[in-house]
Amino acid sequence: MKMISTVFLCVLLFSSSHALDFCVGDVKGPETSVGYLCKPASKVTVDDFVFTGLGVAGNTSNIIKAAVSPAFSAQFPGLNGLGISIARLDIAAGGVIPFHTHPSASEVLLVTQGQILAGFVSSANTVYLKTLKKGDVMIFPKGLLHFQLNAAGYPSIAFVSFSDPSPGLQILDFALFANDLPSELVEATTFLDDATVKKLKSVLGGTG
């Protein structure tokens, strides 16, 4: 009889409780390896689940002639904990999103305007390359180096979705030439000559 009572109590407790439907991120607090802490349910509003920033073109007046407008958990707190995010790519004529990786997510790219030459390199150094037109979709597996460049001669637009609300980003060129990593180490690890390394550092703002 005691065991039956215990089982009944457990069933009653579980039936009267429920799992969290969502965990809207408290973006005023720190982001951890598993995302943001949840906002109190009483402070969650419909605006936490709506993002309006992707309808506006990004500023492409920069060295790469391209812009990424993110809707990650930091900008879109309703994504927190859901394993997804999205961003807009604007690539002007002659523009490029240089070789980069997303350590935490795979990526799906959908071209909505123009043409984009996109590709990635596998860990076996196999190159997968394609010129994408409006309506075409390409995937980039998690952690692999990939790039996108304008192949239309006029502004191209794409939307990219990720399998993580905070996919992370590391751009290869910036990692090599936009910091204080000593030039001699860059030269030793890339087989580039000193003049080339110094030139790239001056262009990208690096020192050393």
Automatic annotation (TrEMBL):
A GO molecular function held by the record: manganese ion binding
Cupin type-1 domain location: 52-198
Disulfide bond annotation, renumbered to this chain: 23-38
Source organism, top-level taxon: Eukaryota
Major place of residence: secreted
One Pfam family named in its UniProt record: Cupin_1
Compartmental location: Secreted, Extracellular space, Apoplast
Metal-binding recorded as keyword: yes
Binding of oxalate, residues: 102, 107
Endpoints of the signal sequence: 1-19
Keywords: Apoplast, Disulfide bond, Manganese, Metal-binding, Secreted, Signal
Keyword Signal: yes
Chain positions recorded as Mn(2+) binding sites: 100, 102, 107, 146
One cellular-component annotation, GO: apoplast
InterPro entries: Cupin_1, Germin, Germin_Mn-BS, RmlC-like_jellyroll, RmlC_Cupin_sf
Similarity-based family: Belongs to the germin family.
Descriptive protein name: Germin-like protein
